[in-house]
Amino acid sequence: MRDVEAQLIHDMQNTATVLREAASQLHRNRETLPAGVVTHLTEMMDRRSEMLVRLLGDLSTAHLAERGELDLSLQRVSLPEVCRDLIEERQPVLGSSRITVDVAADALVVADPTRITQVLDNLVTNALRYGGPHVEVRAVREGAHVVLTVTDDGEGVPDDLVDTLFDAYVHGSSSHSLGGSGLGLLIVRQLCEAMSGTIEYDEDGGTRFTATFPALPLPTRVLDPDVAAGHSVAFWHCEDDLAENLVAYVANGLAAGEAVLVAATPAHHDLLEDGLMAIGIDPAAAHASGQYLPLDADALHTHLPKRQHIDPERFESIIGEAVERVSGRWLGFRVFGEIVDLYWRSDHDHLALELEACWNDLRRRLPFPLLCAYELAPGESAGPIFDCHDTVVSA
What we know:
Elements: H1 2-29, H2 35-66, E1 75-78, H3 79-90, E2 98-103, E3 108-111, H4 113-130, E4 134-142, E5 145-152, H5 159-162, H6 184-194, E6 198-202, E7 207-214, E8 231-236, H7 239-255, E9 259-264, H8 266-278, H9 283-288, E10 292-296, H10 297-303, E11 305-306, E12 309-310, H11 312-329, E13 333-337, H12 339-345, H13 349-365, E14 370-375, E15 391-394
Parallel strand pairs: 2-4, 8-14, 8-15, 9-10, 9-13, 13-14
Antiparallel strand pairs: 1-3, 4-5, 5-7, 6-7, 11-12
Helix pairs in contact: 1-2, 2-6, 4-6, 7-8, 10-12, 12-13
């Protein structure tokens, strides 16, 4: 990025110099300048200020993305709504250009609404600025992804730029004079990748950019009511009961656009994933997008104790930090855990209660829905476990 920074600094210095000269003219000669000259200077200052803000914004976004420090708020996003809002904003200034929109009603994605709008805005701006007068925006759901295309009927990207199109500061013969920062398509690529998406270019009688984003999981049947609230507990004595509660809890979270962190045994992960597949949710795709986060409860229950007690520092470094990372990227998330049950079933009740206390401490600092599950034989008492939770969802 160093050469890019040098070029952008040069551009910003030029813009700042022009602004300073215009401001100086107005300051020194405001009494004698003709009205037309004043109007020209103020309009030019407005344009140049907007350009400077855009250059600074693009440079900041590119830097943050390069360092993996972009602020994201991943959630359910409706592409029909994003496209409608963008076109409504553009309509008054389109002039002779025309934008056609064909977006499927089920084009729902898991993304950051601000960042995906930025991707679409950059692609449409490029098409209007450098392409033909007719721009088409389409989006369709294809399996675990939504495919977004922005096409124009211009001449296409010159062959010598195609291989470096998504690199920094790539300009065609006329693009620099049109006020671009040279970072627009780099930022598009960085934002798509940060949201587990992709971006490609190809020619189709013009210019076509194709972006993919993780599709919002849509179950094929009506889900049981969502029980995610506070710190809840489910008691079970046959795995079918556990699977029913767990699938409903996780599926409701995924369908709402939340991240779901699941600390379960390998056998129960298999039960969960089979149950999700049965209702049309692909757990592998949700895992690939970072929305479904499986953790191994067997391994965790071995690592957390120290000298026969749960070590709060280990809990914080292993579980607390994982929850913090999820919280930093997702607008909403929920957690399922059965590590406590592994202690309970091995007659280490004090470890179960200490771990519940750690979970409650974490939730006081960072509120999120948490569902715990315990296996209980018919007639067996849960004793003090009840007191650790806000709600019992099944017993």
